[in-house]
């Protein structure tokens, strides 16, 4: 089945700096790659996703890039703000499910 | 008008007891899921139902029994609760893994004492 790995597990950034989280996946048949944000005590919520027919997608301060050949995709957050502090999960579809990475704790230091 | 709702939000119970968590979605999705999130935050899939039919059973102990009376509801019953069952259980719905977004419920925090 699909195996998704995320790096780093914890990331601390100064407010205003950029944060980048990388994920790798194993199943070359995967074609949908979402990113979820989970704030403390809340549910995971989709923040951005990308399909395998595009290489990059942007939505205001967040962007996702996909390298199908290398089987990795990354989340980029620019001009980080304290409210960006959360756990971020990447996922990839495969075998009738979304397989999630183990999550990255992002801490934005004011 | 909550999209995916699950109850109860909190459960505190003794080892050996039986408990249930209910989930309902009003998004018209065909597929519903149960995920377990332990203290390390890992989101692990437990079950998936598509239109009332079990699609995924991810080697979960037999003490866990999902039931889907219709495609808008997916309940989870847990027998003989153990300490290791303490976690947050998330219900989610979607139109299937190949097509897109999962919508999560608020989660049910189960604490087994």
Show unreliable segments of chain A.
none
Strand content of chain B: over 45%
Q: Rough shape of chain B?
A: globular
Q: How is the biggest beta sheet of chain A arranged?
A: 6 strands, mixed
Tell me the radius of gyration of chain A: 13 Å
Secondary structure tally, helices of chain A: 0
What is the count of β-strands of chain B? 11
Bin the helical content of chain B. Answer: under 10%
Biggest sheet of chain B, open or closed, and with what strands and sense? 7 strands, mixed
Structure classification of chain A: mainly beta
Write down the secondary-structure element order of chain A: EEEEEEEEEEE
Termini separation of chain B (Å)?
34 Å
What is the residue-averaged pLDDT of chain B?
92
Helical run tally of chain B: 0
How much of the sequence lies in strands of chain A comes to over 45%
Output the helix-strand order of chain B: EEEEEEEEEEE
Uncertain stretches of 5 or more adjacent residues of chain B: none
| Structural class designation of chain B | mainly beta
């Amino acid at each position: 089945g699909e195996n998704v790995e995320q790096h780093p597990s914890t990331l601390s950034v100064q407010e205003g700096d950029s944060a980048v989280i990388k994920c790798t996946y194993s199943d070359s048949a995967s074609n949908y790659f979402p990113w979820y944000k989970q704030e403390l005590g809340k549910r995971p919520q989709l923040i951005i996703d990308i399909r395998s027919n595009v290489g990059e997608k942007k939505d205001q301060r967040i962007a996702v890039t996909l390298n199908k050949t290398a089987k990795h995709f990354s989340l980029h957050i620019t001009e980080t703000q304290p409210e960006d502090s959360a756990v971020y999960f990447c996922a990839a579809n495969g075998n009738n499910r979304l397989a999630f990475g183990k999550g990255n704790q992002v801490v934005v230091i004011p | 008008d909550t999209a995916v709702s699950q109850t109860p939000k909190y459960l505190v119970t003794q080892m050996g007891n039986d408990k249930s968590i209910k989930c309902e979605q009003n998004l018209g999705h065909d597929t519903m899921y149960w995920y377990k999130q332990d203290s390390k935050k890992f989101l692990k899939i437990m079950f998936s139902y598509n239109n009332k039919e079990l699609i995924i059973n991810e080697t979960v102990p037999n003490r866990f029994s999902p039931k889907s009376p219709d495609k808008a509801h997916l309940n989870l019953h847990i027998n003989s609760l153990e300490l290791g069952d303490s976690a947050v259980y998330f219900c989610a719905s979607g139109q299937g893994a190949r097509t897109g977004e999962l919508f999560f419920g608020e989660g049910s925090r189960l604490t087994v004492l």
